[in-house]
């Protein structure tokens, strides 16, 4: 069995300028150091706005902080006349490891569909980035189709045609839970994450399914992260609002101290 290293990812959304970003990452590093927590078994990644990435990169690399970082979106195009777009190649030059694709806020605010999310995923993989593919159902979807039907369909559309061996991360984020304060139950998250892993096995391979990390996102906080991490198919969390509070996010990162097998 593959040992999947847990990933705790902080999606800052449209928060923090580059100066605040630097101060925030430093505070996280100091907080974890003071707590004598070395996240060797937990990967920590930040997803700052585009304007902050270079500053975050410089800090993490110059101080050898051991954190990963990525972008919140990416263009499906490599270059050219696409005003406002950011190429995966540009992000790779900044040493980004990850990029979020298909977040529900992009789907809602910018009318992104599965076809565009698939194109962005392929662009990320082409340039050596690991796409964090977000899937999830709205409250109406939940009532009409149940919890797993929509996210499974979204993921299947994105994975179709993706090259075998491509490294991906999947984030299950029920739209009804994001920012609501009402998280899914651990059992609900487990059921959907298991269904998503089965889709990866069908569309790519059983080996890829076993190796791929699947995250839960949606009102994650220090008080509930340990319960999610006890589930066998939940490999981490994509954290929104709580990732903007240094002390709270540091507590989430330290979940292994509170998980009882």
From TrEMBL:
Q: Which InterPro entries match?
A: Aldolase_TIM (IPR013785), TIM_sf (IPR035990), TrioseP_Isoase_bac/euk (IPR022896), Triosephosphate_isomerase (IPR000652), Triosephosphate_isomerase_AS (IPR020861)
GO CC, any one term: cytosol
Q: Which GO terms describe its biological process?
A: gluconeogenesis; glyceraldehyde-3-phosphate biosynthetic process; glycerol catabolic process; glycolytic process
Q: Which chain regions cross the lipid bilayer?
A: none
Task: Write down the top EC class of this protein.
Answer: isomerase
GO molecular function terms noted in the UniProt entry: triose-phosphate isomerase activity
Q: Give the Enzyme Commission number.
A: 5.3.1.1
Is Cytoplasm there in the keyword field?
A: yes
Ribonucleoprotein keyword on record? no
Which pathway is it part of?
Carbohydrate degradation; glycolysis; D-glyceraldehyde 3-phosphate from glycerone phosphate: step 1/1
Q: Which PROSITE patterns match?
A: TIM_1 (PS00171), TIM_2 (PS51440)
What keyword terms does UniProt attach to this protein? Cytoplasm, Gluconeogenesis, Glycolysis, Isomerase
Q: One Pfam family, short name please?
A: TIM
Q: Which HAMAP family does its entry note? A: TIM_B
Q: Which PANTHER family match?
A: TRIOSEPHOSPHATE ISOMERASE
Q: What is this protein called?
A: triose-phosphate isomerase
What is the scientific name of the source organism?
freshwater metagenome
Its taxonomic path starts at: unclassified sequences, metagenomes, ecological metagenomes
């Amino acid at each position: 069995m593959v040992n999947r290293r847990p990933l705790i990812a902080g999606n800052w959304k449209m928060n923090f300028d580059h100066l605040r970003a630097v101060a925030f990452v430093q505070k996280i590093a100091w907080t974890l150091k003071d707590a004598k927590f070395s996240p060797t078994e937990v990967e920590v990644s930040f997803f700052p706005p585009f304007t902050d990435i270079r500053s975050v990169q410089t800090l993490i690399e110059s101080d050898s902080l051991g954190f990963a970082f990525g972008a919140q979106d990416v263009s499906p195009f490599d270059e050219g006349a696409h005003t406002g777009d950011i190429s995966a190649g540009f992000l790779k030059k900044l040493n980004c490891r990850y990029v979020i694709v298909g977040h529900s806020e992009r789907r809602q605010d910018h009318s992104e569909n599965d076809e565009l999310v698939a194109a962005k995923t392929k662009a990320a993989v082409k340039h050596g980035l690991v796409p964090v593919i977000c899937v999830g159902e709205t409250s109406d979807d939940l009532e009409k189709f149940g919890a797993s039907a929509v996210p499974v369909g979204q993921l299947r559309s994105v994975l179709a045609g993706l090259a075998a061996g491509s490294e991906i991360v999947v984030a299950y984020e029920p739209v009804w839970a994001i920012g609501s304060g009402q998280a899914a139950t651990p059992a609900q998250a487990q059921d959907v994450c298991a269904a998503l892993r089965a889709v990866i096995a069908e569309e790519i391979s059983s080996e890829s399914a076993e190796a791929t990390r699947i995250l839960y996102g949606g009102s994650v906080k220090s008080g509930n992260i340990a319960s999610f991490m006890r589930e066998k198919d939940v490999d981490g969390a994509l954290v929104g609002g709580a990732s903007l509070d240094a002390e709270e996010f540091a507590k989430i990162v330290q979940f292994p101290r509170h998980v009882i097998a």
